[in-house]
Amino acid sequence: MPKLNLSISGVSIGMAVALAIWEVLFFFFGWFAVAYPDRLGFQLAWMTTIYLSFQLVSIPFALRAAKGRFIGVLDGIASLLPLLIVVVVVFGKSQLLNTPERWEAALLLMLVTLTDLFGGYAFNIALSRRMVDIGSSA
Predict the structure, then answer these.
(1) Cβ distance 66 to 72 under 8 Å?
(2) Are residues 52 and 108 in contact, defined by beta-carbon separation less than 8 angstroms?
(3) Structurally, how many domains does the chain consist of?
(4) How many degrees, rounded to 5, is the angle at CA 50 between CA 5 and CA 102?
């Protein structure tokens, strides 16, 4: 039986790509829910909470587990995908946001992805400084 080796960074990249795919399906094709199609706010709340919680809580674990910096760079680039889609929809294709609920969803997703991006970079900088400063005390 083959062993499945999933790293924390790999799951983080997968979640960012999955959110980007969901955003494309939601904004461009009008699909947003498998169950309870009339409860968009509730589904967005759960989805963004799970996404943002994992993305930010996993940073210390991914930082220690990463052997090279390439996976960290790839993780940061993957976090840009959902933000890029929402920015394109809000500023370039605003005709897709024809209801107040879709505007709310776009703004919520923009804030969540911005928090993921800048919060992730802030955590990485804080943790890398802490690791460097531990061995350099005189």
Answers:
(1) yes
(2) no
(3) 1
(4) 125
Q: How many CB atoms lie within 10 A of CB 69?
A: 8
The whole domain housing 43 covers 8-126
Q: Residue 52 and residue 108: Cα distance in Å, rounded?
A: 12
Is 1 a domain residue? no
34, two tokens? 């498998």
Tell me the Cα Rg of the chain: 17
pLDDT digits (tens, 9 = 90+) for 34-63: 556 677 888 888 888 899 888 888 777 766
Residue 42 domain-assigned? yes
Domain assignment present for residue 91? The answer is yes
Amino acid at 39: R
Length of the chain: 138
Which ranges of 8-39 would DSSP assign to H, the alpha helix? 8-29
Q: 3-state SS of 75-116?
A: HHHHHHHHHHHHHHHHHCCHHHCCCHHHHHHHHHHHHHHHHH
pTM assigned to the model = 0.78
Query: Is 3 a member of any domain?
Result: no
